[in-house]
Amino acid sequence: xxxxxxxxxxxxxxxxxxxxxxxxxxxxxxxxxxxxxxxxxxxxxxxxxxxxxxxxxxxxxxxxxxxxxxxxxxxxxxxxxxxxxxxxxxxxxxxxxxxxxxxxxxxxxxxxxxxxxxxxxxxxxxxxxxxxxxxxxxxxxxxxxxxxxxxxxxxxxxxxxxxxxxxxxxxxxxxxxxxxxxxxxxxxxxxxxxxxxxxxxxxxxxxxxxxxxxxxxxxxxxxxxxxxxxxxxxxxxxxxxxxxxxxxxxxxxxxxxxxxxxxxxxxxxxxxxxxxxxxxxxxxxxxxxxxxxxxxxxxxxxxxxxxxxxxxxxxxxxxxxxxxxxxxxxxxxxxxxxxxxxxxxxxxxxxxxxxxxxxxxxxxxxxxxxxxxxxxxxxxxxxxxxxxxxxxxxxxxxxxxxxxxxxxxxxxxxxxxxxxxxxxxxxxxxxxxxxxxxxxxxxxxxxxxxxxxxxxxxxxxxxxxxxxxxxxxx
Amino acid sequence: xxxxxxxxxxxxxxxxxxxxxxxxxxxxxxxxxxxxxxxxxxxxxxxxxxxxxxxxxxxxxxxxxxxxxxxxxxxxxxxxxxxxxxxxxxxxxxxxxxxxxxxxxxxxxxxxxxxxxxxxxxxxxxxxxxxxxxxxxxxxxxxxxxxxxxxxxxxxxxxxxxxxxxxxxxxxxxxxxxxxxxxxxxxxxxxxxxxxxxx
Lengths: 474, 199
Fold this sequence. Notes:
The structure holds 2 protein chains of 2 kinds.
Chain A: H1 9-16, E1 18-21, E2 26-30, E3 33-36, H2 41-50, E4 60-62, H3 81-97, E5 100-101, H4 112-119, E6 127-130, E7 144-147, H5 150-159, E8 161-165, E9 168-175, H6 184-195, E10 203-208, H7 210-213, H8 217-225, E11 234-236, H9 241-247, H10 256-267, E12 279-284, E13 291-293, E14 301-303, H11 317-330, E15 345-348, H12 350-353, H13 356-366, E16 376-379, H14 384-392, H15 395-402, E17 405-406, E18 427-430, E19 445-448, H16 451-460, H17 466-469
Parallel strand pairs in A: 3-4, 3-6, 4-5, 6-7, 9-10, 9-12, 10-11, 15-16, 15-18, 16-17, 18-19
Antiparallel strand pairs in A: 1-2, 2-8, 13-14
Chain B: E1 6-14, H1 21-24, H2 44-47, E2 70-73, H3 85-93, E3 97-100, H4 105-112, E4 117-120, H5 123-135, E5 140-144, E6 149-151, E7 157-159, H6 164-172, H7 176-181, H8 184-197
Parallel strand pairs in B: 1-2, 2-3, 3-4
Antiparallel strand pairs in B: 1-5, 5-6, 6-7
């Protein structure tokens, strides 16, 4: 008797969701959970224009995050009527179409990629989509989760299905122990710097290895979140006891006997021994340092104790020109020590690093210190529940006493669509996911790093190896 | 969707690698309704100074390239955010095809659904075409979807691949949704089976 061909976790999830195959090799996949946010208005317009209603409103969940200012919870306070309409139209569409809305006053509002796992909506084995590229976050629970465009959002609303060509698979194995002060954010920045911003394009990534197993659920969410910054639409981690412990008792997770049956199914999701991946990458956890970006692509990351690279050492003319342009935009000199770079603003938050563990890590550094003179530092919780939890633990007080602004939940300065941006030329130490030119406002300069590193930058006024503040040897 | 058959035009070079969708359409324009003039926001911060004056050396500001309908781009064009608005901006400006060695996955998918054809050619071919455009900005390039060929300004012909269904949708100007809605029974049957497996 020959054993069945070993399958990856991705294969298993894909196979279970196949509705139809098209002759050109595309597959119609069924979507378990469709997450919506306040940028989704055009998809509803597309449906209205065709007279089509939602096929499965019970599978759609929405929350306003992109357009809501983080100094108020009242939509009427949004001064720009066009931005206000984005938030209000989501409420209107939820009422008209009957899908669940975690609204501004409801206590569960937040960044959609924080809310999904927190509510227990995101579960192992699911296909989850959302009109946002950081949907890859939910893969941390062992789901296949990816971002889609607006026309695809409309397609899923109308049919609960999506046509996809089967992507390739890549396994990124991180083995070994992470050093003190090194977090999931540093791991993913290191991975992107290693394989490049297009290194995983066309692939679904499975993160494996002892260092990944050792991450908390929140660390795994951070890891999978930035898969798209390496070009992968989806990143995933096999569900294990950490996953089950995180999910147990969450409002939308299965309960009672149903929970036991679900866990039984989820245990079978992991990739079979001998399953083949189209690409394999190995990373040594011991080599990952606290990592910071210096350029305008997430791949331009170096250890914090390093220096700004010199274009003169670039392998070719095109790369040299690209590096020179980035240094010019970022206002940096070749060879400058990363720890000499002074910052104007600090942003702690986003779907990458706006969870309770992130705020705890930042508060550990902020405790008993003061934000440096001339630095504006913000903490923006990823969701209303994260905010309440942090307040229950007294983290808000630590931040306020240190001189950080303590704000309401939302995407805020990660993308700035709600108007919260840095001024031209301002330099931001940011826990978000993209350092693209202009990402945090025209002319703004972004350095990506972990929450503890961002807090360290806030209290010292310059990019600082957090291990110094933790009393560790650097 | 508008039908796509043959496009012939000067080709506008954007040779840098990793041009992300935040460059193509900055986030502050994301709230604009679908029917707004997204083309006017295309490459806004690379094309104009903060005071609104044009940056002369940006390709779209060179008179010969203002009406180009074909873009020649570097590796990984359209990486980053899933914003379909980036495709609307390219299309709204007048582009109908983007030729590059590789694309951000979501950008390429969004293009196919909006009449902006992503064409993958070998890096060497794209580099040659960019060099031709820079030497002879008026040289015309032809993208023929029926034949699945690109004819460079020097007359050389290059085949490209595209999913057959996406090609048919573009050639006929139809979209996927009508097709999928026609499979309602299969979806309903799947839902019944799926519901049983999950309980």
